[in-house]
Amino acid sequence: MPNIDNSQFESKVALITGGNSGIGKETALAFAQRGANVVIAARREAESVETLDLITATGARAEFVKTDVSDEAQVEAMVAQAVKVFGRLDFAFNNAAITGNATPFDEYPREVWDQVISVNLTGTWLCMQSEIRHMKTNGGGSIVNTTSISAHRGSPNLPAYSVSKWGVIGMTKAAAKGYGRYGIRVNAVSPGHTETPMLGLNDGEERLNALIEQYPLGRIGQPNDIAEAVIWLSSDSASFITGVSLPVEGGIIA
Ligand SMILES: NC(=O)c1ccc[n+]([C@@H]2O[C@H](COP(=O)([O-])OP(=O)(O)OC[C@H]3O[C@@H](n4cnc5c(N)ncnc54)[C@H](O)[C@@H]3O)[C@@H](O)[C@H]2O)c1
Fold first, then answer.
1. CA–CA separation, 27 and 29 (whole Å)
2. Where are the domains of the chain?
3. Ligand 1, pocket-test mutation among 194, 230, 249, most atoms within 8 A of CB
4. 219-237, pLDDT tens digit by residue?
5. pTM for the whole thing?
């Protein structure tokens, strides 16, 4: 990544969904370390306290908004609260998601399908709608959505997850075309396996080593790998980039 002038983030406002864990938490910190004020939207307040403390320790201001991204009213309130507290919204990282239990395609339960689509696909759409409405009147902004390598290939036992992430790429491209003229850039990152609670690597070295073997770069991702890509896509260094899904995946889909 080229050097990024951190002064462009000072006093700006970044909203991060799922910002209390894994990739979202690391990205919240990355924005804060560059001087942005940060709004963390997540479902569980207790789990957000540590992240809020880490952010304020950098000197940045932080706000938690309890939000279920699949709930339209809560998403509207999330953006309204960010603007009320900090006066503006410059960067949004729509990152909250669930995987649903791995189940073969032909046995996949309808209720899990509905839940995963509701959070990952509809939730991201609702967030984008609210953010864009504000950014349109605010002179522009940058949105980054989280997809996955599951959106660049098939994941037979995670059909809803895979479909939702392919859909997020579609929404990213649609919104990029629709709102570029308002100064709004919309991009996505597609992480490979990344060491977070979602990956659930508590079952010993064997699974980790099996994953590592698939990676040309000889390791799986760390949350900071993704956070730095989000910062770059959000920054002026990427000012001519919109509508892309940037794979950050150690070469696994090469
Ligand atoms: N970890 C990986 O290997 C990996 C790989 C590819 C893509 N991703 C994507 O990265 C993103 C972050 O995942 P992570 O690995 O940091 O996992 P994580 O489980 O640590 O974080 C997910 C976050 O989303 C939040 N969340 C879930 N449902 C929500 C809802 N309805 N409303 C609000 N918040 C909700 C969780 O509370 C949590 O904060 C996700 O979009 C995930 O699909 C992760």
1. 5
2. 7-248
3. 194
4. 999 999 999 999 999 999 9
5. 0.97
